[in-house]
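Q: Structure for this?
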Amino acid sequence: MTAGITTSELLRLFDTSLTDAPRLVSLFGRKQDDHKYLHYILDLPDVGYREFAYLVEGVVPSATRVSPAAAWHERELHEEFGVEFTDHPGLLPLRRHSPERRETPQPNEVRSPRLRHGEFLQVQGTGVCEVPVGPVHAGIIEPGHFRFSVIGDSVLHLQLRLFYTHKGTEKLFEGSLANEALPIAESVSGDNCFAHAIAYCMALEKVFGVHVPQRTDAVRLIGLELERLWSHVVDFGALCGDVGFSVPAAYCARIKEDLLQASTRFSGTRYWRAIAVPGGVTFDPTPSAVQDLSRAVGDAAADFAVLARMALETPSVQDRFETAGILSPKVAKDFAVVGPAARASGIKKDVRIDHPYGGYGNFQLDVPCYECGDVMARARVRVDEAMSSARLIVEQLASFPAGEVRPPVSMSGSGEGFAAVEAPRGELLYWLKVNEGRIARCHVRSPSFQNWQALPFAVAGNIIADFPLINKSFNLSYSGCDR
Amino acid sequence: MKLALNFVQVALLLLTAPLLRGIVAKLKARIQRRKGSPVWRPYAEIWKLLRKEQLLPRDASGIFQLGPIVAFVTTLLAAAFVPVFQNTALFGGAGDIFIFVYLFALGRFFVSLTALDPGSSFGGMGASREALVAALSEAPLLLALTALAILAKTSSIAEITAWTVGQNFFDVSAVHALALAAVAIVAVAETGRLPVDNPTTHLELTMIHEAMVLECSGPSLAFIEWSQALKLNIVAALIMALFLPWGIATRLTPAALALGLAWFVSKIGFMALLLAFVESSVAKLRMYAVPNFLQVASALAILAVIFTAVMKR
């Protein structure tokens, strides 16, 4: 799967004059025997995922000029692996926000036109103000710093400073036994823990060539779709809450709780923690549990359909959602945006359809796609996806395959591989290298890492008071991005 | 006797203010099918804040501590102009509609100063938004009150009430309808309720009033919260006194007073219910749509004044 390639060949792949340029899925580094390797994972049209490994010798040509989606990946590589890139627009560290020791500026130092470490780009002009927000917020939310340059209430430019919750997660994986690292994967982004666990397990299964029984695939599909269903219900409720429309917000919280309780009756856990294991799942649902879940999901979906229609047909909600935070298809494509945000901007990509995995090949899936790219489009994508997830769960429960769910698997040996799943926020990829049963390197490309880069482009031109709503419509995970 | 009753009216407004807030919050919770917190919670909150330590931002000056007290005192003074269950008020006389409106403005001015004083970005943002809302809501409120004053041939709130009680309920003029609509819109803006401002939000970038008081803590915050709750009570009482005064006690007999009080309680209960329903059925306006919303109030108030000319009385 891994192909050696020179960077110039690689960059030619990104030629944007072609309409079907490849999409950058991930770019990460790996150290082995004093050598540094770069791994490019691309999604080639009509071909699928391809991985290209590249041995670093000297300075590497930057991919950012041809594919802006690589910007943060290369900054991360520069910071974590000391890789030098030519022609990158700004290789500032993502995580160390300011220099460790403050260098005293020389009195007659010529200021470089480029941004220096720890500085924000300053928008100049009369009446331009800077508004710093965070990392500590008025509500109990994850930390992130937002630097707005505004004229009056209009946002001219937004700069993000994230990675406050960087925990060195990828490093934590290293050295642990492959099947013991699951709790780490489950806590990368707590609200999507099952998607992370499944992506990790699938990557391991790729490494060892493990075959997963059909019944296991069915249980996993139900778990993944349940997670998507309640995530979208919660996101929709939060969008309503952000515009002060409290009734749908409260009802969405109720529907989510119903689903979590149904999930507890089905699997014994609310959020499906410790359910996925490499090669299987840890429980085998009884026929009565299957019926019960089917009924609960059907009820929740029916409630949510009525509620969503009521909320989206309220004029004051339409007024807030429509035309707010437009992410243009061009920006979405340039930054390789994934998930509901991409599908709201006319990019009909979904891992479940483009690269079917697990049990998804057996079902007809409706993937919603809207062109407007505003908050309303992202809300509608979520509502439609929640409906299609509910349908999928009910269909899968109706045709539940027989068989075992947890065959014994042996996981000794070495190898590498990757797998992607469609998490509620979009394409989630795990890349693993295993040495003698222990993880040598694990790379997590969360959908949030990719999508955060595009957020400032959706915010510019809006009023600053609409930022929380726009941000919520993307609903990106800080923890998943920062790792 | 009358003086004592007037004091009782002010005390009633002051002391039931947190309760009204609690009732509105409870009703909203019930509409959302939540249990909701007890209606007495705002009292506990104020009591808690009063006993807490006051934290001062590093760059704050004396005005930071003065502002909340001025806001509280001006709101309390404004309360003394409104008849509650009997048709006189503690303060009153020619021109008090203007004093009433500008007492609110003075309080708001000092809260804005409190917001600006520590030099934090949210305070400034909140203060500038509040100034915008204030500038646009002051005119319709004054005009609507003026229209009523022209009809009643007096500019004292208590006397307008006394005059209105003497009219037939089914005889209400177009002026009243227009002025009521204008005052209702202004009331929403003035008390920081939906759809102009969301009093329960935690999103600092969308706040108006809440952004101004982010830096306040302890007793300062208690005074701000209480004066905000009192404002809601005053505005509700004002709307009743000007537009729906029937039932108010016009004689000082115990029976009339009891009836007046009962009417007051039922009318304010109805208004709380109305507020809870309105707040549950709309989303907050976009910030730049707020001026349009208040323009409607201005237009209605101007029409109300014009219509007084054609109302031959």
